[in-house]
Design a protein that fits this description.
Number of domains: 2
Number of strands: 15
CATH architecture of the largest domain: 3-Layer(aba) Sandwich
Number of helices: 16
CATH superfamily of the largest domain: Alpha/Beta hydrolase fold, catalytic domain
Structural class: alpha/beta
Shape: globular
Helix content: 40-55%
Radius of gyration: 29 Å
CATH class of the largest domain: Alpha Beta
Length: 528
């Protein structure tokens, strides 16, 4: 009887444990299902957002394309138009193929890995093997998606208060103004450092396309190109273009206007500091600075030039030139990016221009590829709370929110430099004041010249940045990493290639170059 009782109790306990285990498994599966529903919703929202962000410039470009083609259709035969459209279709298919191949490859890698882990988690749940169960796995997936779709964009938006220039706060002083530009002095943000009154002034010229804020990346984190100069006591100035949407003078600005405004600023600083100015252009700003110098308008005002990741001869940028060569000649027209403002002035749409660079690197910029790339980045954190660095957030803030519309005449100068090579004698494909511009004029005027470029720059090739060396001598500094690293990674004073140091094979950062130049000129002054 006792044995029978023990058997019944044992059977009851076994059945109870089994039912409890089944109930536990069922709860986990229900939890996994709940997380799966959240994943589906978040995934659709995220993918749609990435696709919309990518396609917005396309819709803008399509309007400009339609307007431009209305005129061109009248000037081409039906056969020519059909031929060109077929070539354009082929080009579009090639670009789409690059994006599709990279996207499918990354999706395959991601889902293959996750499917293996999901199956393992399911086995752990059903057979109680320990390790991550299916509910935990699905929760981790849901958390990673939420970080990509919600937390990451929020962090990028919120970094705006720390990123870039905030001229309404202390640390900047307005020095001069024209109808088109403002000139601000950047004050040191390090205690006990003050600008030297007799120091050699420098004017930093930002690119038109992606604006000036990249040059004051994260001042609070000690990552700021302009503050790297100011914190060494150098009288540092930044030229800021006025809001193109609200300033008609900017909308219709020409290269001559740019040169004359720069001359006014240089005259102001020479009078203030009693020394000639150093011009320092970053990216497209360097090309504009060179044009201004070669025009002769800055003679006697500027004695030194620094360019950073600047396309001096755009036709030598292999990746972009290859992209342009595949585009049918009929469509190599700046008019496809032009839009008309309510006041009748025309400008180049900044979103469309930045979109062109995305199309050039479609294998890395396709929306699905970008979505999965970010998803994999957060998924590696194992479902923990997102650790979004300020640097990553600020970089994306720059790329997303700093796309400015551009004056047509200014953009045309850069466009010509990417479609017409520098002549064999050093003459550029651009004129100012109806004057030919030749690199050799820098040597004739004794302009000291430092060229800085980035080893892994996929936007401005080494050959493009160093084009002047075919005609004149210049000092060259090579920085590691990509296009924006000089303004971001290396603006940190403690970094390996800090701007105020010597590094690599006798390379000098631009701040070091300016300091050494000031010391050299001071010695010359004493001798005289």
């Amino acid at each position: 009887m006792e044995n029978m009782t023990n058997l019944v109790l044992s059977s009851y306990k076994s059945l109870s444990d089994s039912l409890e285990r089944l109930f536990e498994i069922n709860l986990k599966l229900m939890g996994a299902t709940r997380e799966q529903m959240k994943i589906s919703q978040t995934y659709c929202k995220g993918l749609t957002t990435y696709l919309n962000d990518f396609m917005t410039p396309f819709r803008i470009a399509l309007n400009a394309f339609s307007e431009t083609e209305k005129d061109k259709l009248r000037n081409h035969t039906p056969y020519e138009s059909l031929r060109d459209y077929v070539e354009l279709l082929q080009f579009n298919l090639q670009v789409a193929e690059k994006g599709l191949n990279s996207s499918v490859g990354l999706m395959s890698d991601y889902h293959s890995k996750e499917a293996t882990e999901a199956f393992s988690a399911w086995l752990n749940t059903v057979f109680d093997r320990g390790g991550e169960d299916i509910e935990t796995f699905m929760g981790r997936q849901s958390k990673a998606l939420e970080q990509v779709v919600y937390a990451y964009p929020r962090a990028i938006l919120e970094i705006g208060s720390e990123y870039g220039f905030h001229f309404d706060s202390p640390g900047y002083e307005k020095t001069a103004e024209t109808d088109r530009f403002l000139l601000y002095q950047v004050l040191p943000n390090v205690k006990k450092v003050k600008p030297r009154k007799n120091g050699k002034p420098i004017i930093i010229i930002p690119p038109y396309v992606l604006g000036a804020n990249i040059l004051a990346f994260l001042p609070g984190e000690n990552k700021s190109y302009v503050h790297a100069f100011a914190n060494e006591g150098i009288p540092t100035y930044i030229r800021i273009m006025k809001d193109i949407d609200e300033t008609p003078a900017v909308q219709i600005m020409t290269g001559e206007d740019d040169a004359l405004d720069t001359r006014f600023f240089c005259e102001t600083l020479k009078k203030k500091h009693r020394r000639q100015v150093t011009l320092n252009g970053f990216c497209q700003g360097g090309f504009i600075a060179v044009l201004n110098l070669l025009s002769g308008e800055l003679d006697g005002l500027v004695d030194a030039l620094i360019t950073c990741v600047t396309p001096m001869d755009g036709t030598r940028s292999k990746s972009l030139v290859e992209y342009m060569e595949h585009l049918p000649p009929r469509f190599r027209d700046l008019g496809y990016a032009v839009k008309t403002l309510p006041n009748g002035n025309q400008v180049v749409d900044g979103k469309v221009m930045s979109w062109v660079y995305k199309l050039k690197s479609m294998e890395k910029e396709a929306p699905i590829f970008a979505f999965y790339r970010d998803l994999m980045m957060f998924n590696r954190q194992g479902g923990k709370e997102a650790k979004i660095s300020k640097t990553a957030a600020a970089l994306n803030h720059w790329l997303i929110y700093d796309r400015n519309d551009l004056p047509v005449a200014i953009t045309k100068m850069s466009f010509d430099s990417y479609t017409i090579p520098v002549d064999k004698d050093g003459t550029l494909p651009v004129k100012l004041f109806d004057r030919k511009l030749n690199f050799k004029r820098l040597k004739e005027k004794g302009i000291r010249f430092l060229i800085c470029y980035a080893e892994q720059d996929d936007l401005v090739d080494e050959a493009s940045a160093l084009a002047p060396l075919d005609y004149i001598d210049a000092e060259v500094s090579v920085f590691p990493k990509g296009h924006g690293a000089i303004a971001t990674s290396w603006s940190l004073p403690s970094s390996e290639c800090a701007l105020h140091t010597r590094f690599g094979d006798e390379c000098r950062g631009p701040v070091r170059y300016q300091l050494d130049l000031e010391a050299e000129l001071n010695k010359e002054r004493k001798k005289s």
